[in-house]
Specification:
Blueprint lengths: L1 E11 L5 E12 L4 E5 L6 H8 L7 E6 L2 E2 L4 H5 L2 E4 L11 H11 L5 H11 L15 H13 L5 E5 L7 H16 L3 E6 L2 H7 L2 E6 L2 E7 H8 L4 H11 L4
Parallel strand pairs: 3-8, 3-9, 6-7, 7-8
Antiparallel strand pairs: 1-2, 1-4, 4-5, 9-10
Helix pairs in contact: 3-4, 3-5, 5-6, 8-9
């Protein structure tokens, strides 16, 4: 569903230097797979997701989404995927149902209101469809944002820290939702720095640091590469083994 090859993106910092946010990154994700994008703060995870979502153009590299060249035809690529940033950006004064419906109408979804109601109900927000987004809990806002992302039935979901700011129950609920979406044969890329939730839902993952991929594989393979039984210990070991440029 997703294949990215040799992605590169650099930025000029205020001091006049160059920040290599993404440095030759390649990855592939299949339908029904939840793929973890791991790294410390500032590793390049969000920049990578924005590139995959066609919101930031890479300096070099290729992206295929559902067989579409995302750099040559970003409109067709966006029709096949959805990007959910860490900040959902829901309109405060619209109800949950209105916020999702409007997004569907912009996307040209037939019977957008019916589709929005169906998704909100399936995601456990049916009792809150009439409530203004500003009045929703953080966990409920996540459900609304996910419903909005699913309105055009994308095959690929790009999720940036989807459980950030949630309590324990909220995290569990969102992770269960992500698993159910993958069970529908959607490909999911999950950016996170919380190893416990990665272990809970991901089949494979890569670790990036300073824009470089330093390890990739199944979770068992990552543990073996890091020489540790726990993923968080393996993560730290692999980061410490990564040479300083």
């Amino acid at each position: 569903m997703l294949r990215a090859t040799d992605l590169v993106k650099s930025f000029h910092d205020p001091a006049g230097g160059v920040v290599h946010a993404v440095a030759g990154l390649s990855l592939a994700v299949e339908p029904g797979e939840i793929y973890g994008l791991l790294g410390p703060n500032g590793a390049g995870k969000t920049t990578t997701l924005r590139i995959l979502a066609t919101l930031t153009r890479p300096d070099a590299g290729q992206i295929q989404i559902g067989g579409v060249d995302a750099l040559r035809d970003p409109v067709s690529a966006r029709a096949r995927m959805a990007y959910v940033p860490a900040e959902g950006g829901l309109p405060a004064r619209l109800s949950a149902l209105e916020a999702v419906t409007v997004f569907g109408e912009v996307q040209g979804v037939p019977k957008a209101r019916d589709r929005a109601m169906q998704l909100l109900t399936e995601l456990g927000a049916g009792a809150y469809v009439g409530r203004e987004c500003a009045q929703l809990s953080t966990g409920m806002k996540r459900r609304v944002v996910l419903a909005r992302a699913l309105m055009h039935d994308p095959g690929l979901l790009l999720l940036d820290e989807p459980t950030d700011g949630l309590d324990v129950q909220g995290r569990m609920d969102v992770l269960q939702l992500i698993q159910s979406l993958a069970a529908q044969r959607r490909a999911v890329v999950l950016s996170s720095h919380i190893m416990g939730e990665v272990e809970r839902v991901c089949q494979r993952a890569c670790i990036i640091h300073r824009g470089l991929k330093i390890a990739e594989g199944s979770l068992d393979e990552l543990r073996a590469l890091g020489g540790a039984a726990a993923l968080d210990d393996a993560f730290v070991a692999l980061l410490n083994a990564e040479p300083t440029p």
